[in-house]
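Record type: monomer structure entry
Structure origin: computed from sequence
Chain ID: A
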Amino acid sequence: MKANKNKEKIQSYSRMQKRKKEILSWVWAIVFVLILRQFFVQAFVIPSESMKPTLKIHDRLLANKIIYKIRQPHRWEVIIFKYPEDPSKYFVKRLVGLPGESLIIKNGSVYINGKSMQQPEYVSTPLYYYSDIDALYGVHEEIKIPDSAYYVLGDNSINSRDSRYWGFVPSKNLVGEALFIYWPPWRMGLIK
């Protein structure tokens, strides 16, 4: 009888230890995810057609949040930033103009420092940028991009409110580089 009670105590203690280990592993997993999200990677949902066909409405993507702490953004990258007119909102656009450059959009092309910029081969969709009459920045005359600021455009420029309308993205507003579409599964892949 005493042996049975001891056996039950040992089994009970073993179950309790197993639960503690399981709970502790969940706590560490949650801490790891929170640290990862805070400093390295963040998920975003695309709310509009401004980056179509590169990104479509309701695409879910991951952004590399640490990359711009290591290096400067590169032209043609798809970036995520806090909207300059309302920093509580996040926007996703293609970076086309770098700090200190002169920029104008003519005949659907972006001219940087007087030279027409050719999109890289990895951007498969032809990019045509409209010179909308309501646009204020870089459409009617050449503009100079301030130091510590960037000029961004949506790939679907006819349906994009971007730097043409509200100006420049301060470097402090950069969140990260859009890396990977993870949902829906049939659109899963790297963002270019």
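Annotation 1: The CA atoms of residues 124 and 192 lie 8 Å apart.
Annotation 2: The chain has a mean pLDDT of 87.
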